């Protein structure tokens, strides 16, 4: 970039390059600042994916009846198409389990944090002065009464709903990556998580590998390990035990 500037035609199209270009030539372009940005993004993407995997493993171990149908789905798809992006998209049951696990174990109990940059008054008269922060209560919304048995883990809930809407072409709204005012796992609107598609592929690759090769059950005292909360963060129990057996 220093040598060629705008004349560098074959520059890579990746995160490091985006950060370099967005930094410009000011203080933000210092090595320390660039590294800080990379570390921040690593933290934001890695710990959330790790937490989602652990929560899903706890849920699969606590609901062993889900494992045989998941194994059948994964085995059939991989035997026909191998591991590919298209194969992962076809794993509707696995997608549903991940979304349901994230619904009940939302990484953050709040979502869509916004700051009022101008004074704003809602239709009910609520007034927001400049500088007011507003958030959506994600955990409460994900367990609202609009969802049947909202506090119960129903692994194939979204796969069934997708099948019901298949004819109308609206099945996609039940996918784990689909954001809405009812599904705030990845936020919603203009600032919804842009990395959610990549993250979901990671989760499906990891969990399909586990399902295909292992049987799972809870160890320890029994019962799904309870979540821990640190402020608005929902953390998987670090003391939880899952036992694996090779198929």
Automatic annotation (TrEMBL):
Protein name: Cytochrome P450
Keyword Metal-binding: yes
Lineage: Eukaryota, Fungi, Dikarya, Ascomycota, Pezizomycotina
Keywords of this entry: Heme, Iron, Metal-binding, Monooxygenase, Oxidoreductase
Keyword Transferase: no
Binding-site list for heme: 193
Taxonomic superkingdom: Eukaryota
Coiled-coil ranges (or none): none
GO MF annotations, alphabetized: heme binding; iron ion binding; monooxygenase activity; oxidoreductase activity, acting on paired donors, with incorporation or reduction of molecular oxygen
Cofactor(s) required for function per UniProt: heme
Family: Belongs to the cytochrome P450 family.
SUPFAM superfamilies per record: Cytochrome P450
A Pfam family assignment: p450
């Amino acid at each position: 970039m220093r040598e060629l500037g705008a004349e560098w035609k074959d520059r890579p199209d990746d995160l490091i390059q985006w950060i370099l270009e967005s930094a410009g030539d000011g203080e933000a372009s210092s090595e320390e600042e660039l590294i800080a940005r990379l570390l921040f993004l690593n933290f934001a993407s890695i710990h959330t994916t790790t937490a989602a995997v652990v929560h899903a493993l706890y849920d699969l171990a606590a609901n062993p009846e889900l494992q045989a149908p998941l194994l059948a789905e994964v085995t059939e798809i991989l035997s026909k198409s191998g591991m590919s992006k298209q194969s992962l998209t076809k794993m509707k049951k696995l997608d549903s389990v991940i979304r349901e696990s994230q619904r009940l174990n939302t990484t953050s109990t709040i979502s869509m944090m916004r700051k009022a940059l101008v004074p704003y008054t809602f239709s009910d008269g609520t007034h927001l002065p400049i500088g007011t922060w507003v958030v959506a209560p994600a955990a409460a919304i994900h367990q609202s009464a609009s969802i049947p048995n909202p506090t119960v883990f129903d692994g194939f809930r979204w796969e069934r709903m997708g099948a019901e809407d298949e004819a109308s072409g609206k099945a996609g709204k039940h996918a784990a990556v689909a954001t809405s005012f009812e599904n705030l796992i990845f936020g919603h609107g203009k600032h919804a998580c842009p990395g959610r598609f990549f993250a979901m592929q990671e989760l499906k690759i990891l969990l399909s590998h586990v399902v295909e090769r292992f049987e799972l059950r809870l160890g320890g005292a029994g019962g799904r390990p309870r979540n821990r909360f640190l402020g608005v963060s929902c953390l998987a129990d670090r003391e939880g035990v899952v036992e694996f057996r090779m198929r």
